[in-house]
Amino acid sequence: MTAPVLSVEDLSVRIAGLHILQGVSFTVAPTGVTVLLGRNGVGKTTTLRAIVGLTPRNGEASGSIRMDGGDLLGRPTHRLVRAGLGYVPEDRDVFAGLTVAENLRLAERRGTTPAYDKVFALFPELDRRGRQRAGSLSGGQQQMLAIGRVLLNDNRLLLVDEPTKGLAPKVVTEVAEVLERVAESVPVLLVEQNLAVVRRLARDAVVLAAGRVAWAGAAAELLAEAELTRSLLGVGSGDHHGTPTPAGVRKDES
Ligand SMILES: Nc1ncnc2c1ncn2[C@@H]1O[C@H](COP(=O)(O)OP(=O)(O)OP(=O)(O)O)[C@@H](O)[C@H]1O
């Protein structure tokens, strides 16, 4: 078996006195997309933030998080990013008052050559809209900018939090297509609630429930078991024959 790019072991996170993660353990394969699933509020974002060293000041993370064997826990975020951890947060966090080009320039890392060619090949619109203020971009375009600026630098692993949240169906499909291409060259740990997107992208799945890992295995296996999906996620997985739920339809909201 190939060594995982990331190993999380017995991760516990307490925030403001709440024990949110209670000994979470899972691995991320060195290729493809691993999806982190679970009902609302179960701790998916908390997990990604712990990995990238962003547990809030009133919180505490313990356990072990290793990327390529090196321990990440306790290291400051800027060092983790320099070590190749790319993070696309849930709310995109683009600088609304700056232009697209300025947002990208801010992501450049000293001492390395930013991969503008790669980013503009994936997102031609970011090139065309270089002088537009990021705050006036559509939600989908802001998401592309948030992903694009992370891809300016080399990454060993990408953490992507709910990239399709709140987007129109057509844009959900565009974001999924882009992530599919991105995942050809860098492994991705993805938090995603849209099961059509999960079905399309994910090879492996990890499901959180009650502060722990409730299920881990092949994403296709999880989605093929309607009862299992319903009990773990509280949603149906579409039909049993592999017909994708139409992109953009959030089954969890039905
Ligand atoms: N800074 C914080 N202060 C207090 N509670 C927090 C904080 N951050 C997260 N929590 C709590 O931790 C729990 C897990 O939150 P988290 O955002 O990780 O869940 P999630 O699985 O990503 O949810 P969703 O699917 O709704 O985005 C929630 O109950 C949340 O209210």
Automatic annotation (TrEMBL):
Pfam families in the record: ABC_tran
SMART domains in the cross-refs: AAA
Domain of life: Bacteria
Region (Disordered): 234-254
Keywords per UniProt: Amino-acid transport, ATP-binding, Nucleotide-binding, Transport
Family statement: Belongs to the ABC transporter superfamily.
Listed name of the protein: Amino acid/amide ABC transporter ATP-binding protein 2, HAAT family
